[in-house]
């Protein structure tokens, strides 16, 4: 298997430019990620996912943020629309795990039909009253045991259908009171609380193949650096949480991070992240990221190959039947 570039990259529009094709062929990023700007019609999306893989010469994973609710890059009529996770969990009550498994089997099947086989979900952050509104209703619950139960149901629904889940935002974003797209959240909670709640949620699902870091400072552990660029926090993710899967950053372009995109990328990789996630599709920035990132380390390559091994062949799914089963559970 060829060595992969230590990045997951976006693209600018609905189809690849000549420059993007040439760059992707040279850089061979581990994978790609799509956003609304890339998604217009079923045929167009299938052509784009095919062209991305043709550019690198192998069946690279293609990711998306399709949580349902406010964060779903595709909407009806392309795919099904959903309530925010927190609202869906509340309405289903004791049937929430069954309902969420059905929901994400449908989402996974719709993604696979378009050539997308990675989903940046489930979010295992534990909701609080003070969780920033940009994140709060994207989460499953205020209760850690319910977060773990639902997170496992969602992750296994993805894997069972043939889509790679990405657990996020490691080691926990639920205590963040700022929007990390714009500002750097700082968490002042005691270590005991973090261990018992936020970190424990990820520890319970630490065998999942892929994870995403949080742009959050944990003052009790490393008061000077967000988890994404903190060697101390990445070591905690690896050893205390016990996650040995492939660890990508959250979007390296987010304003929670300081410095140039090159400096951010270097800091994240030096801290121990396996790959940089760059989402905005700016070709000049992507070139800068890849020039800095280079190829995966030997450990990162091994984790990448293990993650790909977890990508099962797509399973034929009757989406209408799953949707009817889901709707039958609605109180």
Can you lay out the helices and strands and say which pair or pack?
Elements: E1 5-9, H1 18-27, E2 29-34, H2 42-56, E3 62-64, E4 66-68, E5 71-72, H3 85-92, H4 96-112, E6 118-119, H5 133-136, H6 144-161, E7 164-165, E8 167-170, E9 186-187, H7 191-203, E10 210-213, E11 217-218, H8 231-239, E12 246-248, H9 261-271, E13 276-278, H10 283-293, H11 298-309, H12 319-328
Helix pairs in contact: 1-2, 3-4, 4-6, 4-12, 6-7, 9-10
* Apparent shape: globular
Q: Gyration radius, to the nearest Å? A: 19 Å
Number of helices: 12
SS-based class: alpha/beta
Distance between the termini: 49 Å
Overall pLDDT: 97
Largest sheet: number of strands, sense, barrel closure: 6 strands, parallel
- The helical percent reads 40-55%
Number of DSSP-assigned strands: 13
What is the oligomeric state here? single chain
Strand/helix succession = EHEHEEEHHEHHEEEHEEHEHEHHH
The proportion of strand residues reads 5-15%
Order of neighbouring strands in the sheet with most strands: 7-6-3-2-1-13
Low-confidence stretches: none
Verbal overview:
With 331 residues, this protein is of the alpha/beta class. 42% of the residues lie in helices and 12% in strands. The chain has twelve helices and 13 strands. It has helices at residues 18-27, 42-56, 85-92, 96-112, 133-136, 144-161, 191-203, 231-239, 261-271, 283-293, 298-309, 319-328, and strands at residues 5-9, 29-34, 62-64, 66-68, 71-72, 118-119, 164-165, 167-170, 186-187, 210-213, 217-218, 246-248, 276-278. The chain has a six-stranded parallel sheet, sandwiched between helices. Helix 1 packs across helix 2. It is globular. The chain starts with a strand and ends with a helix. The model has no long low-confidence stretch (mean pLDDT 97).
């Amino acid at each position: 298997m060829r060595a992969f570039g230590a990045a997951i990259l976006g693209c600018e529009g609905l189809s690849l430019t000549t420059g993007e094709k040439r760059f992707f062929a040279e850089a061979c990023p581990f994978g790609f990620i799509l956003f609304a700007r890339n998604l217009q019609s079923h045929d167009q999306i299938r052509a784009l996912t095919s062209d991305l893989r043709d550019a690198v010469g192998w069946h690279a994973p293609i990711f998306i943020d399709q949580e349902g609710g406010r964060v779903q890059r595709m909407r009806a009529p392309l795919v099904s629309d959903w309530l925010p996770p927190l609202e869906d969990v509340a309405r289903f009550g004791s049937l929430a795990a069954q309902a969420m498994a059905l929901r994400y089997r449908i989402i996974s099947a719709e993604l696979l039909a378009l050539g997308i086989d990675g989903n940046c979900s489930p979010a295992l952050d534990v909701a609080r009253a003070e969780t920033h509104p940009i994140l709060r209703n994207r989460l499953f619950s205020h209760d850690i045991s319910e977060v773990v139960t639902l997170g496992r149901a969602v992750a296994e629904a993805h894997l069972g259908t043939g889509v790679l889940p990405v657990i996020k935002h490691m080691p926990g974003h639920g205590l963040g009171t700022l929007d990390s797209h714009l500002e750097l959240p700082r968490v002042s909670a005691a270590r005991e609380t973090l261990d018992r709640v936020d970190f424990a949620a990820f520890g319970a699902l630490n065998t999942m193949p892929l994870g995403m870091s949080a742009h959050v400072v944990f003052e009790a552990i490393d008061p000077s650096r967000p988890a994404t660029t903190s060697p101390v926090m990445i070591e905690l993710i690896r050893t205390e949480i016990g996650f040995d899967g492939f660890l990508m950053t959250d979007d390296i372009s987010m304003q929670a991070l300081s410095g140039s995109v090159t400096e951010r990328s270097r800091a994240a990789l030096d801290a121990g992240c396996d790959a940089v996630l760059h989402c905005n599709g700016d070709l000049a920035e992507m070139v800068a990221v890849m020039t800095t990132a280079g190829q995966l380390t030997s450990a990162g390559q091994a984790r990448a190959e293990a993650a790909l091994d977890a990508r099962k062949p797509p399973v034929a799914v009757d989406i209408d039947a799953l949707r009817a089963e889901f709707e039958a559970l609605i109180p």
